[in-house]
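During the no-cost extension, the postdoctoral fellow (Dr. R.K.) reprocessed legacy sequence entries with the updated structure-token encoder. One reprocessed record is reproduced below for audit purposes.
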Amino acid sequence: MDEFANVGKIPDFDKKINTIRSRNISAFVILQDLAQLKAAYKDTANSIIGGCDTKLFLGGTDSETTKYFSEQLGKETIDVKNTSKSQSSNSGSYSQNFNRIGRELMTTNELATLDGRKCVLLS
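Re-encoded structure tokens follow.
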């Protein structure tokens, strides 16, 4: 269903997408961004999104869409090393701190500037 947002609202599509999925039938809903879906389907948009097993992000700058994919990708743990050095005429000091912090696997900015040869697949 290419240009899904422009074909008109399909009555009870939130229920239909889950029913056809239970019968091993696939529906490919293709959108530019999540705002299109929410504009057409308002309160049932999240149910439609939930009914899609696989989500493919090919790029885009819509903040709601990039936020959704960033949250779905989750976080990773990274090691951060902080080094400080101070020096005076008599002596100097040096310290290092190591911390582990969580960060998004891909931030909204990283998704918004995604290389056109790459994509994000959630399944």
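The longest strand covers residues 75-87. The beta strands are 55-57, 75-87, 92-104, 120-122. The remaining legacy entries will be reprocessed before the final report is submitted.
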